[in-house]
Design a protein that fits this description.
By secondary structure, this protein is an alpha+beta fold. The chain has one domain: Roll (Nuclear Transport Factor 2, Chain: A), CATH 3.10.450. Helices cover 25% and strands 34% of the residues. Strands 1-5-4-3-2 form a 5-stranded mixed beta sheet. Strand 4 (136-149) and strand 5 (155-170) form a beta hairpin. The longest helix is centred in the first third of the chain and has 19 residues, at 22-40.
């Protein structure tokens, strides 16, 4: 399977030329570090990119749930990342097709893919009675992410909108070579 988690941060590189000034460049570079920390499951890389009281607003992350489900506050955000790293739900590939930036914000739009175990898919509400059974699933969606930054250049959090989920069974033999061994159940 062709799956490149590094796109989650490297797909920002193509947008570096859009930064009109140092503030915009700094904001973009901060988000690149943040996204790389997500790919590496490195909480010590992620948390310094955030303000003291980050607010995550997630809409449409779970099927049929349209209200905000994002974590609020530093402890909740850190706990959310740690849980996703621990259960394997953060094996992602997020490509940024479009980016718009100002001195105080960055907006990206693109395709999001995530490999999740059957347990995570079930807990997240992605499986129905007629979903083919599999130890793994590939979830694909479109997403738009709004980033805002404080005066110190830290991210205030993320406002994320996820649209058009598609969930497909994924055979163990189709897992990418880079899929972490600790989440291989079969």
């Amino acid at each position: 399977m062709d799956f490149d988690p590094d796109l989650t941060y490297t797909s920002y590189f193509q947008h570096r030329g859009k930064a009109a000034n140092a503030r915009q460049r700094d904001n973009l570079e901060l988000v690149i570090v943040h996204a790389r920390g997500e790919v590496l499951a490195d909480i010590d890389m992620i948390m310094p990119t955030l303000c003291d009281d980050p607010q995550y607003h997630d809409f449409g992350v779970f099927p049929g749930v349209f209200q905000d489900t994002g974590p609020k506050g530093r402890d909740a955000v850190e706990a959310n990342y740690k849980e996703m790293f621990a259960n394997g739900a953060y094996f992602i590939e997020s490509s940024k097709d479009r980016a718009v930036m100002s001195d105080d914000s960055l907006v990206t739009e693109g395709t999001f893919r995530q490999i999740i175990t059957a347990d995570v898919a079930r807990q997240s509400g992605f499986l129905s009675a007629d979903t083919p059974q599999s130890p793994y699933y590939l979830m694909t969606a479109r997403q738009v992410v709004f980033w805002s930054f404080d005066e110190a250049g830290k991210a205030l959090g993320e406002d994320r909108f996820v649209l058009h989920h598609v969930i497909e069974p994924l055979a163990t033999d189709d897992l990418p070579a880079s899929y972490p061994e600790q989440f291989r159940t079969a």
